[in-house]
Design brief:
316 residues; alpha/beta; Rossmann fold; globular
């Protein structure tokens, strides 16, 4: 029974910890509040993961260290560098494989499907922060100082997911109009949180997967309109009402709302096809994406305002 250390108790961290525990591993979940899933094999620990000395003590003897952290969206350029540095230092000191949850921001606007070999050409702040994190980790791997890998997914579906898709599903369930700064009819890849966990565990525990990035196996892309319509059908809710928020309104909202301000940088992701190619991971790691309906059903169940309410109540 190996020890695995998961930093971050959000949806991906929790899913990764549960998966490892269910496989018979011992898991330590490190977060500032000491949160984590309830399981006999999971030990939640309250700690500051930017403290490399403390994190090194917690990771001593571990097989892998999973970076599932998620700083506040508007503070990535402030919070990510010291956290990423502490995680990499810990991996170098302990020998634990550093497996990082990444995303697609580093590619920037791309024409066509993104693969792991697509140039990391982002010019925005968040994309450049993620690219520097991976560059540092890869350099340490290539120098023989650490063993590293990274997995990258698109917008999440699943329990606890906090993304634009979550907002869409919440409004579909309650019958509210969906108002977002997106083109509702362009295809967009969606990634299931459970598949992120399966991919990062597979990459962390397979020596052949180290030293490179992997895309999380994800189902075929669909438009936000198609996603909302399918969710409504599964939930027994009314037909979704979708309204596109003009970009000037997003820009003005960002003057007072930090989250909306940050969306200006990534608005391109929802006004043109945003396509993830995960065929390499599917072949190499033997992982197939979870069916969309299964991921949607789980997400909708977690979002229901009243788990015991009927579909008629939810759609009224």
């Amino acid at each position: 029974m190996a020890i695995h250390v998961v930093v971050g108790a959000g949806p991906v961290g929790a899913a990764t910890a549960r998966l490892l525990a269910e496989r018979g591993e011992r898991v330590r979940v490190v977060s500032r509040r000491g949160a984590g899933p309830e399981h006999p094999a999971i030990e939640p620990i309250a700690a500051d993961a930017t403290d490399a000395a403390h994190l090194t003590r917690l990771t001593a003897g571990a097989a892998a260290l999973y970076n599932c952290a998620n700083p506040a969206y508007h503070r990535w350029d402030i919070d990510w560098p010291p956290l990423a540095a502490a995680l990499l230092t810990t991996a170098e000191r302990t020998g634990a494989v550093l497996a990082t949850i990444g995303n697609l921001y580093g590619y920037g606007p791309v024409d066509g499907p993104m693969t792991e070999s697509t140039p990391l050409a982002a010019t925005g702040v968040k994309g450049r922060v993620r690219n520097q994190m991976w560059a540092d980790a890869l350099a340490a791997h290539e120098a023989g100082r650490a063993r590293t890998t990274e997995v990258r997914g698109s917008d999440y579906l699943g329990i606890g997911a906090n993304s634009l898709t979550t907002l869409v599903l919440s409004n579909v369930l309650t019958g509210r109009r969906v108002v977002l700064p997106v083109d509702f009819d362009v295809p967009h890849t969606i990634t299931y949180v459970g598949d992120v966990a399966r991919t990062v565990v597979a990459a962390a525990t397979d020596p052949e997967a180290w030293g490179r990035a992997w895309h999380v196996p994800s189902p075929p892309a669909l438009s936000v309109r198609e996603l909302a319509t399918r969710a409504a059908a599964l939930a027994g809710a009314r037909t979704p009402r979708l309204t596109r928020l003009p970009y000037p309104a997003l820009w003005l909202g960002g003057l007072v709302n930090p989250f909306l301000r940050e969306l200006r940088e990534t608005a391109y992701q929802f006004v043109r096809p945003y396509l993830l190619d995960s065929s390499a991971a599917q072949r190499a790691l033997g992982i197939e994406p979870t069916a969309l309906d299964e991921a949607l059903t789980e997400s909708l169940g977690a979002l229901r305002p009243n788990p015991g309410a009927s579909s008629a109540t939810l759609s009224s």
